[in-house]
Each structure stands twice: as structure tokens, then as C-alpha cells.
Design brief:
The chain is α/β, with parallel strands linked by helices. The chain contains 15 helices and 54 strands. 16% of the residues lie in helices and 30% in strands. Strand 50 and strand 51 form a beta hairpin.
Length: 1064
């Protein structure tokens, strides 16, 4: 039994028609730490691959292999087309299974998806392997390119073709495949190009032993009999499988035995080193990527995922993890282990850097009453789940099943997307400080999604079919005067349900209630949209036999433009009259007005792109060698041929700007060090993603880490200059920016101890800059100035300084899904002159050391970047004013914030300001000035006095909007269809970038010269001599002597003097 394709499975679910199971009345239950007494280490059991159930290895070998990989720093075994050839038996069995009931109630509603016959594997992938350097032109690929269709539309339309039409495409595909192999052989015979990576190179008339496929590490991390056999054959890759299959079983066993010996040696080597078990809460020294080839893996105890590990299945033929009937434990895959009821291996708020992608997890054989879940996901930032199907027993098959897809009790995440949940008591059972999810599908669950606590959660693009309840929100925040931690807020964006009797069940209290907002909901055959659980009363009725559309509806505290708030007991909420078209889905498959989301590319069909392995082409990635020149050379060549650039694991030192211009990088792991500095806090070194002026490009970056080796006071870690050529084509997925706290950074406890102010710990000027001509799609991007030493067993706090988080000047379209920025000195997010930006959910933290020193210290400089705050209006005696802003918006338009968690936990490392209940660590956290059409939904703050501060406006008080532990408002209307924070004078810019285009000024100098001066436009005339009027002109006197104008002029002049000092 092999893997399951997400798109096919999703389409299959959406077109089934039949009977819906009846509702039942039970109390929702979920296992907490006290219900699970122990989480045993992997014990004896069965582990099988390629359908050989019960005949494989023990599940402990999975753990052993994973731990060994921490030492090896390698990817696992690679699967070629032969090994990864699709097997449709699993999907066919799933379709016909009685355990997957109908999706639509029999009341006349028709599925929007046509009934089609799934394409064959040969149509999807061709009749045989293609050369690794060629573009696979499979029958469906040829058809889709010519017909101009993509996404979920491709396979239904292909199925509608006649057999003669399909046959013609198959002939064309096979002809092209034979031509590609002939071209490959001719190229090899002529001698390989240093930039044409191939599976095999012919030297002196003979073919070298196994080299590697493009983009695949040299040494497999999981050793198999096939890999041992392959390494000894002086044959080309396409022959390996044919010869392997020709061996007798006895001969194969010889190679399998040798592989087992090699694996045992690798595990023994790792056991001699450091392991990330209890007592070792984190480390950056032992990362691992564990690869699961296609197959069915039978497990009888949890697969434990260690810190800094990603688990990857074959994305084109997903492996199945099958939980045995004898399964003992909680999660089939678990990110943490309970030593006692409330003691775990890892601190949940610091459980960073994890990912699980491309699996099918089947729970059905496990006992129905043991609360087994597919994944136990107790994680923090820098984590992701993606492209996973969870198959559980449905309530119609077993009334009272306790199986659940995902259980999450706490943490500080995080992002997950492209998940399918079939059956179970719960599809997902979630609790976390904050999270962002996208593209989830729930079918035939008793409750699709239960949320038992959060402060903020954004759920985008989610579908439910035939669940008794769609979403259950547990307990609100606890009711009258409660300070408990219930569900603080929930934003549902683009949610659609079919045949779900109760869409949302929740409690509702005027004080301390969950802040709920539904944006663009469509509910077909759903009797009740919102049910109030305390009284069993309907807050929003639906239609059991028809369609109910919800544009914008919610309940919670609403802040009006005056800063006053009032409780809305379930009502329509203000919403934009029209969103910019560039931010919405534009194809004909999705509902209208749906926010754009793009799943990370998997490169099943890379087109004509050449793959470049940077280590094979000369980069060292050893943390010592300067790789700047060789990386720029590779990137330049790749840009010219629209190449895919692969960075194997390593630490790539960059001592000058690394420019990535219009290329399509594949899966990458770039740990770049930007070393040069030029003055105290003056930007110098940059990792530039797309050079200035580059427009309309495709640039896709995945799984990269950008960091510094300090002191690097002038470093800008990522400067983003690229603009999309098609919607979402300029993207950044699962890529993070980290300043300090890691081995090799020279910014750990030894160099930067807590409370010490060391100038050598000034490490960055800015973490990320999106320039004005750029656009971007950012998903699961965490920008973090380290607050603790990750290599220390006690995770001791440290003092590291970076001036700015992310500066966005982009004119859009720009999407930030599941991003966070923490601990920068001046601000975490700033939008300056930005336009058409979606942000959901964003999360911030102020530096723990502030206000000692007070911002902008230790960065004592003038305006270096646009609209830098100078904190000049903060009094010397205030301890709460001169602290980092979480979010600033200046001169920006069409900004949409779909949940924001803005937290300040400390005052000079003391948490008394939070623990006392006063929440007065910081005066203000969110600032708006001269910005139009700003829409903010579900704003959550902790530790601040003012939730929103608009120039010349009344602030929104946090104390008036307490909601459990945090403060929250369901919407802020200060910028809705109007200008928020309007200046008394609009101001002017003395120079524009076009004016400066022909000179050699630095970017910092140009930024300073084009800064806005907040004075009346007549002030522009004062730069030259001339008669302006009599001294008794009161209006003129006010203009000349205006304090704001004087301060703005002084700031502009200081910034120009500092940033343009090298120019005359």
C-alpha cells in the first residue's frame, strides 16, 4: 500500500454523495497531560516498507535512524521514478471503504466537482523515467500546458477527454521521453559541463560509479540494500533498478545484511555523541532531515521527533504510517515526550525548528477508546505541518471513537497547511498561544476542529464536509471576571462547510468572551451557523437545505475611530467594500473574493530548469570558507537559465552582498553569515534577494536560515527586491532569520550575558527589508533576535541587539501568512508607504532587556531607514515609553491585519508588570500615522497599556478590553474606509528616487534624502532666499515655528548627515 495524493483525495472527497450519519449527544473530551500517564520509548513492534506488513524492522529503528542523522547531517535515501512509481491500490481501497461515509446530505445539493475517473499513474507521470536534467513532459503535463489549466482543475478536465484524445497525448509524451534520453546520451558522450549535473558522467569511455541525481546529497543518510548495490555498479542510474529486480532473493538479502551493518555503525556513532533527550532541551548542532520513501510503515509505538528535525515523505507518493492494533502511546508521531504529568523533554514555548511533511497517517486499527492521535504537536515558532492526511475511524463505523488527527495542548507556534482529516472524534484538537493554518479539509469527523485555548488563531481556506459539528470553541475565556486562559480569539477567513448541522458551537459572555470573526463564509445545508452552548440558543441561523453566505460577522469588543470600545453580541462587522484584485484568488476554481494562498512548490515538473547543487559546484558550506564569490557566480548562471539552486545542509559564509536574481531555488538550507560592518549601526552587509530594479520574476525560496556571526552591527540579513511575474511567484516558505543564540554565532552567553551591554553584541541593523518595488509571498517566516542561548542546558537568557525587524515599503501585492518578528530594538514590523498588504497572523515580542537601555540605544544614530522612530517624545523618567514598537504603519494604504499577537513580557527582565495583573510593561505597541483603509481584526496584546495609538487620535486602552490573560478586540475601525493617524500637515519629500536615479548615492543615503518632512508644503520654499510675507502674519509664524515641523526637519537633517557622510 502506497501513498495518497492530496489533490486527488481532496477531489474524491468532494464528489462523493450519500447519506450523512445522525448526530449524537456526548460531552466533548480531549486528553490532557493528566490523562496520559506515560509516553514510552519505542519498543518492539513491526515496521514494514513497500507493502510488506509485519515483515520489516522494529519501529525503534526509525528512531535510531533519525538520531543517527543528527550526526550525519544528511538527507535520507532518495527514491527514483521506479521506486516511487505510484500504486493506486491504497486510494482505490480508501474510495470504496465503508469507513468513509457520504459527504453531502441527500437534500438536492450537488457537489461543485464533477464525477470523474482518476487518471492513471502513467498519465500523471509517464510510462518510464526521464533523464534527471530533462523536463518531464507527461501526458497530463502536455495537456495542461496547452489548455492553460492548473491546480485542481487539471485532472477533472483531463478525465473528460475522449480516449482517442488521451492516446494522442500519451504518444507525444513517450516520443519526447525517448528523444530526451537520446539527447542525454549525446551530451554525456561529448563530456559533461561543470554546470550540467547528471546522474552519471562518462570518463575515458567508461561511466563512473554512482554519482548522484541533481540536488541530492552525496551520501544517503538511510542505507538500504539497494543503495549498497547501486554504489557498486558501474552502470547508469536508469539501469540500477532493472538489475536489482533481476537479482535472486538470496542475493538481495546479502546486500540488505550489509546495509543493516552500516546502519548499526551509524547509530552507534551517534550514541557516542550528544543526544537530544531529556536534559538537553535544544541544540543547533545536530539538525537532521529524515526521508521516508514511499511505502507502508507499521508502528506499534510513537515515532519521536527530536529537536531541529524535519521528517519528509515522498511528496509525489506519500508514505503511509499505519498505527498497529497493538499501538501503545499517544501520538503516532510526537514532538515531545512526557516524563511526568507536567514534565516534558522540551519547553513547549522554546520547541523550535521542526517540520513534518508529506505523509498519510492511518489510525483505524488502534483501539477506539485509547485517545490515539496522528500527531502530538507541542511546538513553538519555526515549525510546520504540511501535506498530511489523517485517516481515523468515522463515527458511523464506531459510535464513540476517541481517535483524533492532531492533538496540541500548548506551545507558541506556528504554521500548518494542506491537511486532510477523515473521521475521528476530532479532526484537530488545538491549543496554543497563537497559530496560523491554511488549506485544511475535514470530512466525516464528529467534530472537525476543537479549539480549547489560544490567544489568537487565524484559520484560512478551510472546508468541512458531513461533520456533526464544524468548530467547537471550548469555554470562551471562562465567563464573568475570569482571568483564565480559554480561547481568546479566532479569525475564520474563507471557510466553507457542506452538510454540517452546527457550524460553530461556542460560549458567549459579555465579559471575557472569545473574539470571533467570520470573513467570507459559505455554508451549504447547515442548519445553525453559530450556537451558544450555555443556553443552546442560536446566535446565527443557517439553512438546512440551502446556502447561507456570511460576508463579515462576529462578536467581541469593537473599537471605533474615537478609541472607545463596546461589546457586540453577534452582528455583521464592517468590512472593506472591495479588496484589491491583486490580493485575491484569480482562477475559476475557488469561490470569489478569496484570499490568495500558495502551497510551497514541490518541483514534480521543474520545466526546463537546470538544477544546480552549490556544493558540487565549489561552495564549501563549512562555516569557515568565504563562499561569497562562488555563490554569486552560481546564482548569476542560474538566473540566466531560470535554474533551480540547491543548497545542501551547511553553513555558507558570506562576507559581501549575495544577490539572488530571478531564479527558482529548490529546497534549500542556507546558513549564511554576513560579516562586514561599516560604522556603528550603519547598514553594510546584505543578503539581497533580487537586485534593485529587477522586476517581474520567479523566485521561490524554501527552508533557508539567514543568520550572522557577530559583531555585525551593520548587517541587513535579507533585502527583498524581487517582484512577482505571476501571482505569488516571489515567495519565501519555511525560511527563518536568526540573530545570535546558536553555536558559531559568537553571540552566546559567553559573549553576551544577560544584563551586560556589550558593543560586540550589536549584531544587525535590520532582519528583513522589502523595498518599494518588490512584492512577496511570505509563509511561516520567523525573524528572531535570540533571547536565550539555545546550546545551554538551562537556556539562559542573553543580550543581543538588532535594530529593526522587518521594514515593508512594498506596493504589493504582499502576503504574510504565519510570520513573527521578535526582540528588535526599534520595531518588529514597520510599513512605510506600503500598499496592498495582507498580514495574518503576525506575532511579536519586545526585547526582554528594555527599557534598560531605552530605545533607540544601543543604536545611537539618525534616520538610516525610512521613518525610523526616534522616541524623542518619550520623557527621560518614563520606563514604559522608549521601547520597541510591535507594529508601525506610516503613509500606508490597503492594509489588512487578520489577527496580531503583540506581547511585552518584561521590564528590564522583570515580569512583575505582567504577573501583577497590571499589564503595564510598555506604554504603546501599535502606531498608525497618515494611513488609509487599514483593517485590523482580532488584535491581541499582553503587557501594554495602549493597544492602538494613532497620531492625533485617542488610544485604545488595553485595560478596557481584558479578555482572560490578554486584552483583545475583534476589530479596530480607526482606519476603516478613512485615514487613521492623520497629520496636521501631510508633509512633503524634498527628493524622489527617480530624481536620484542617476547618481552613485548609497541606498541608505537615498533613503534618508527621500524621507518625509512633516511641514507645510510652503516650507519647501524656505530653502532659498526670498520674501515670504510680513512678520505679523500669524499663519506664517505658526508654520515657521511649528514644533512638529522643527522636529521633523531636525530628524531629516540628522539622517542625511549620518547616511550621506561619504558624499559631498
Amino acid at each position: 500500500m502506497l501513498g495518497l495524493d492530496f489533490a486527488v483525495f481532496r477531489a474524491t472527497l468532494m464528489r462523493q454523495v450519500g447519506q450523512m450519519y445522525p448526530m449524537r449527544q456526548i460531552a466533548p473530551s480531549f486528553p490532557g497531560p493528566g490523562l496520559v500517564q506515560s509516553f514510552p520509548m519505542p519498543g518492539p513492534g513491526a515496521f514494514a516498507t513497500q507493502g510488506q506488513l509485519g515483515q520489516g524492522h522494529e519501529p525503534s529503528e526509525i528512531i535510531s535512524t533519525m538520531t543517527a542523522l543528527h550526526e550525519q547531517h544528511q538527507l535520507g535515501n532518495i527514491t527514483d521514478e521506479g521506486v516511487a512509481a505510484r500504486n493506486s491500490e491504497y486510494l482505490a481501497a480508501l474510495r470504496s471503504s465503508s469507513q468513509i461515509p457520504s459527504l453531502f446530505s441527500p437534500n438536492g445539493f450537488q457537489s461543485p466537482w464533477p464525477a470523474v475517473t482518476p487518471p492513471s499513474n502513467a498519465d500523471r507521470f509517464g510510462s518510464g523515467p526521464w533523464p534527471p536534467t530533462a523536463r518531464p513532459q507527461n501526458p497530463i503535463t502536455i495537456y495542461a500546458n496547452e489548455a492553460g489549466v492548473s491546480g485542481f482543475a487539471v485532472e477533472p478536465r483531463w478525465s473528460a477527454l475522449s480516449e482517442d484524445q488521451k492516446a494522442a497525448y500519451r504518444v507525444r509524451s513517450e516520443t519526447l521521453r525517448h528523444e530526451a534520453w537520446a539527447q542525454q546520451e549525446a551530451t554525456l558522450a561529448e563530456g559533461p559541463s561543470p554546470f550540467a549535473l547528471t546522474a552519471c558522467k562518462k570518463l575515458d569511455g567508461a561511466c563512473e560509479p554512482w554519482r548522484r541525481l541533481p540536488g541530492v546529497p552525496t551520501r544517503p543518510g538511510i542505507i538500504t540494500g539497494l543503495s549498497v548495490f547501486r554504489d557498486e555498479q558501474e552502470i547508469e542510474w536508469q539501469e540500477v533498478l532493472r538489475r536489482w529486480e533481476a537479482l535472486t532473493e538470496e542475493h538481495r538479502q546479502v546486500f540488505e545484511a550489509r546495509a543493516a551493518t552500516a546502519n548499526a555503525a551509524a547509530r552507534a556513532t551517534f550514541r557516542e555523541g550528544r543526544t537530544l533527550y531529556a536534559g538537553c532541551p535544544a541544540s543547533t548542532q545536530f539538525p537532521a532531515t529524515v526521508y521516508f520513501p514511499a511505502g507502508t510503515y507499521l508502528v506499534s509505538s510513537p515515532i519521536i521527533q527530536f529537536y531541529n528535525t524535519e521528517m519528509l515523505g515522498d511528496p509525489f507518493n506519500r508514505p503511509v504510517i499505519l498505527a498497529a492494533e497493538s499501538f501503545s502511546g499517544f501520538g503516532v508521531i510526537t514532538s515531545d515526550v512526557y516524563v511526568d504529568d507536567d514534565v516534558t523533554w522540551y519547553l513547549n514555548q522554546n520547541s523550535f525548528f521542526r517540520s513534518v511533511r508529506n505523509f498519510v497517517i492511518d489510525l483505524r486499527p488502534t483501539p477506539q477508546w485509547t485517545y490515539v492521535c496522528g500527531i502530538h504537536w507541542q511546538v513553538a515558532q519555526g515549525t510546520s505541518l504540511e501535506n498530511i492526511a489523517f485517516i481515523s475511524t468515522t463515527p458511523t463505523e464506531y459510535d464513540g471513537t476517541t481517535q483524533q488527527g492532531i492533538y496540541m495542548e500548548n506551545g507558541s507556534g506556528g504554521f500548518m497547511s494542506d491537511l486532510v482529516f477523515v473521521g475521528g472524534n476530532f479532526g484537530g484538537n488545538f491549543g496554543n498561544q497563537q497559530f496560523t493554518t491554511s488549506s485544511m479539509l475535514f470530512d466525516s469527523c464528529w467534530t472537525g476542529l476543537q479549539i480549547h485555548w489560544d490567544w489568537g488563531w487565524t484559520i484560512q481556506d478551510t472546508e468541512f464536509y458531513n461533520c456533526a459539528k464544524g468548530i467547537v470553541i471550548v469555554g470562551g475565556a471562562g465567563g464573568l471576571f475570569s482571568t483564565g486562559q480559554g480561547v481568546g480569539s479566532l479569525s475564520l477567513v474563507d471557510v466553507h462547510m457542506w452538510g454540517v448541522p452546527v457550524v460553530i458551537e461556542t460560549s458567549l459572555f459579555e465579559d471575557n468572551s472569545t473574539a470571533l470573526h467570520i470573513d467570507n463564509g459559505g455554508f451549504q445545508n447547515c442548519e445553525t451557523i453559530v450556537l451558544k452552548s450555555q443556553t443552546n440558543s442560536v446566535l446565527y441561523p443557517g439553512d438546512g437545505t440551502g446556502l447561507t453566505n456570511v460576508l463579515s460577522w462576529g462578536f467581541g469588543k469593537v473599537a471605533d475611530p474615537s478609541g472607545e470600545t463596546g461589546f457586540v453580541n453577534g452582528a455583521n462587522m464592517a468590512a472593506p467594500e472591495a479588496y484589491p484584485a491583486s490580493l485575491l484568488v484569480t482562477d475559476d476554481i475557488h469561490p470569489p473574493a478569496k484570499s490568495f494562498h500558495r502551497t510551497r512548490p514541490s518541483y514534480a515538473d521543474p520545466g526546463n530548469s537546470q538544477i544546480f547543487d552549490v556544493k558540487a559546484l565549489g561552495a564549501k558550506g563549512d562555516g569557515a570558507t568565504d563562499d561569497t564569490a562562488v555563490l554569486n557566480r552560481i546564482l548569476d548562471i542560474a538566473a540566466n537559465v531560470s535554474g533551480i539552486v540547491y543548497f545542501p545542509h551547511g553553513v555558507y559564509v558570506i562576507k559581501d552582498t549575495s544577490g539572488l536574481a530571478h531564479y527558482q531555488p529548490g529546497m534549500a538550507a542556507d546558513h549564511g553569515h554576513r560579516l562586514p560592518v561599516r560604522g556603528h549601526g550603519e547598514p553594510a552587509g546584505r543578503s539581497a534577494r533580487g537586485r534593485r530594479g529587477v522586476r517581474r520574476c520567479v523566485m521561490e525560496i524554501q527552508c533557508m536560515m539567514s543568520t550572522v556571526r557577530g559583531p555585525t552591527a551593520g548587517a541587513v540579513l535579507v533585502e527583498w527586491n524581487v517582484h512577482e511575474s505571476s501571482q505569488g511567484s516571489a515567495g519565501l516558505w519555511d525560511s527563518h532569520i536568526r540573530v545570535g543564540g546558536a553555536k558559531g554565532s559568537d553571540l552566546q552567553n559567553a559573549e553576551c550575558p544577560k544584563t551586560a551591554q556589550n558593543k560586540n553584541c550589536i549584531a544587525a541593523s535590520m532582519m528583513m527589508h522589502m523595498t518599494e518595488k518588490s512584492s512577496g509571498y511570505l509563509e511561516n517566516v520567523w525573524m528572531w533576535v535570540a533571547d536565550h542561548d539555545m546550546e545551554d542546558a538551562d537556556q539562559i537568557q542573553i543580550n543581543v541587539y538588532a535594530a529593526r525587524g522587518i521594514l515593508i515599503e512594498s506596493q504589493g501585492p504582499t502576503w504574510l501568512w504565519g510570520t513573527a518578528a521578535e526582540h528588535a530594538v526599534l520595531y518588529q514590523y514597520q510599513l512605510s508607504g506600503a500598499k496592498n498588504v495582507v498580514m495574518g497572523l503576525i506575532q511579536t515580542e519586545a526585547p526582554y532587556f528594555q527599557s534598560s537601555p531605552k530605545a533607540p540605544a544601543p543604536f545611537e544614530m539618525g534616520l538610516v531607514f525610512k521613518d525610523d522612530p526616534n522616541f524623542a517624545d518619550c520623557s527621560a523618567s518614563s520606563k514604559t515609553c522608549a521601547m520597541a514598537w510591535s507594529l508601525r504603519m506610516i503613509d500606508s494604504t490597503n492594509i489588512y491585519v487578520i489577527s496580531g499577537g503583540l506581547y511585552t513580557w518584561f521590564q528590564d527582565y522583570s515580569q512583575e508588570c505582567v504577573n501583577s495583573g497590571a499589564n503595564d510593561c510598555q506604554l504603546s505597541t501599535f502606531y498608525v500615522e497618515q494611513s488609509f483603509d487599514v483593517w485590523v481584526y482580532n488584535l491581541i496584546t499582553i503587557g501594554v497599556i495602549q493597544m492602538v495609538t494613532a497620531l492625533n487620535g485617542q488610544p485604545v486602552s488595553a485595560a478596557n478590553n481584558r479578555n482572560g490573560f490578554a486584552s483583545s478586540i475583534v476589530t479596530w475601525l480607526g482606519g476603516a474606509n478613512q485615514t487613521a493617524g492623520g497629520r496636521n500637515v501631510t508633509g512633503y519629500t524634498p527628493h524622489t528616487r527617480d530624481d536620484l536615479a542617476g547618481n552613485s548615492f548609497s541606498e541608505q543615503c537615498k533613503t534618508a534624502l527621500t524621507g518625509t518632512i512633516a511641514c507645510v508644503n510652503q516650507a519647501m520654499q524656505w530653502t532659498s532666499l526670498g520674501y515670504r510675507g510680513s512678520l505679523d502674519n500669524a499663519t506664517l509664524q505658526d508654520e515657521v515655528c511649528d514644533v512638529g515641523c522643527r522636529s521633523s526637519l531636525a530628524s531629516w537633517y540628522q539622517g542625511v548627515s549620518s547616511s550621506c557622510a561619504d558624499y559631498t
